[in-house]
Amino acid sequence: MTTSTPRSWWKTGIGLVLTGLMLFPVYWMINVSFTRDQDMRASPPHLFPTNGTLDGYRAVLDQQLPYLGTSFLVGLGTVVLTVALAAPAGYALAKLRPPGGPALSFVLLIAQMIPGIIMAMGFYAIYLNLGVLNTLPGLILADTTLAVPFGVLIFTAFMSGIPDELIQAAVVDGAGRLRTFWSVVLPVSRNSIVTVSLFAFLWSWSDFIFASTLAGGGDHQPITLGIYHYIGNNNQQWNAIMATAVVASIPAAVLLILAQRYVSMGVTAGAVKD
Amino acid sequence: MTIYLIAFYAYPLYRNVELSLREYTVRSFVQGGAPFAGLDNYRTVLSDPAFGPTLAHTLIFTGASLAFQFSIGMALALFFHQHFPLSRTLRALILVPWLLPLIVSASTWSWLLNSDSGLVNAALGVVGIDPVNWLTSPGWSLTSVIIANIWIGIPFNLVVLYSGLQGIPVEMYEASALDGASSWQRFWRITFPLLRPVSTITLLLGLIYTLKVFDIVWIMTRGGPTGSSATLATWSYRLGFGNMLPEFGPGAAIGNLLIVMALIAGLVYIRIERRQHLR
């Protein structure tokens, strides 16, 4: 079925063209990030960075490192907290069948539909009174709301597939509920942990609305705000702006390469839920 | 888990409803004691001359985005469903636009659509079309943000529809091929009807996500010029955080209108999901 007849290579050609068209803006971002200031307004624009420059990247290293660091911290914090909250919840929903379980899954579905701006305003009002506005923990907590409902649903779906015999065997061996969860359920759920962590990290890394409303006035700002201020303050140095954009996209690119199958798993599982 | 839900979803939501029912100023926001205003904020918003156009933009933005994302995503899914070398790799690569931080895509599109030195105008110039002020003219700003949003949404549609296509048994196609059906007939008679459940869900989820879109519009045009690309989400943000003097009340009121729209779509989604499960 998959033998490479000349006909199927012809299709590969079309596939390459289509992919190229879709990815052209990404290429253009990379191209502009290497373009010299004086070539930026060339007409017609240079399709390749013929007289390439690293000025843009030098500017990133000079100015954007703290933002990148903040984003990493927030991303890692979000991942840890999301998995810590969602994995036990998913396990409980899948195996312990608590009263009100279906209702809770329903609420989780709804929770994913709340527009970000509404959550942002609510959080802003609460954080102002609590005094956690412009702090890293505050931003991490807010960012977990992006991934926790998704995480619980993924974990529930996955953990329902774990055979009951496996859990009973652990109980027979004298493991308590917590120990069963920790040393039996979690290890077999590795795939779903990877999927959830991946999305939790990506979402918190790309989050703009919580960052700008809840951390916009603080010392620790994530990279999305870094780029945003950059566009606002100097809309001339597009090579630096695009270089920052390229650097900010690296986590997405790396994760996509490392975890291809988890990505498409997450997209489909997130859309068509059981 | 329930506690988490209450603390991190219900409470912010409650505060938001409360915000929309009171008359907040910067001072009363910090110190408390904002007077109860009933539905005044809603009245303010609904009678604002910007309300009609903004609602229209939201609907156009959502409708146009969905139509193009879905049809292009479907075409790509059908194409990549065929067997050919590199098909898997290329399909994975197409996911990139969806995974990029929105601020990255939005700023890239800003530069592509730049009036003076953007590539799009340069390309139009080659075929003899005058440059368009994509982001700075009221007539084009909405189109520009829609183009960017379509680009970002295609991969999602592709992946979900592709997984739907994989669920269609190959025998169906083999049988129809024996009967001498053309590929066009096969699409309309087999693929499309069998894909309907997946399509419905893709479109509904797309609807819910598109109603929420904020980053792209805000970063590319800030809803401007003069509100020509403002949607409910950006308007709400502008009122709450975009000015020196925040108007949280009306901002929250718009947000709540938005959530009602999303909830209606959400309930339809859940109904359809349920019905499909029963079958």
From TrEMBL, chain A:
Q: Which CDD domains match?
A: TM_PBP2 (cd06261)
Q: Where is the ABC transmembrane type-1 domain?
A: 68-259
Q: Which chain positions lie within coiled-coil regions?
A: none
Q: What family is it from?
A: Belongs to the binding-protein-dependent transport system permease family.
Q: How does it sit in the membrane?
A: Multi-pass membrane protein
- Chief localization: membrane
Q: Which organism is it from?
A: Micromonospora luteifusca
Name of the protein this chain belongs to: Multiple sugar transport system permease protein
* PANTHER family in UniProt: INNER MEMBRANE ABC TRANSPORTER PERMEASE PROTEIN YCJP (PTHR32243:SF18), MALTOSE TRANSPORT SYSTEM PERMEASE-RELATED (PTHR32243)
Q: Which PROSITE patterns match?
A: ABC_TM1
| Residues annotated as transmembrane | 12-30, 72-94, 106-127, 139-159, 180-205, 238-259
UniProtKB/TrEMBL annotation, chain B:
For the ABC transmembrane type-1 domain, which residue ranges apply? 55-269
Subcellular compartments: Cell membrane
Q: Which residues form a coiled coil?
A: none
Keywords of the record, alphabetical order, are: Cell membrane, Membrane, Sugar transport, Transmembrane, Transmembrane helix, Transport
**InterPro entries the record matches:** MetI-like, MetI-like_sf
**TM spans (from-to):** 55-80, 92-112, 140-162, 194-220, 248-270
Query: What Gene3D superfamilies is this protein classified in?
Result: MetI-like
Q: How does it sit in the membrane?
A: Multi-pass membrane protein
Q: Which family does the entry's similarity section mention?
A: Belongs to the binding-protein-dependent transport system permease family.
Q: What is this protein called?
A: Multiple sugar transport system permease protein
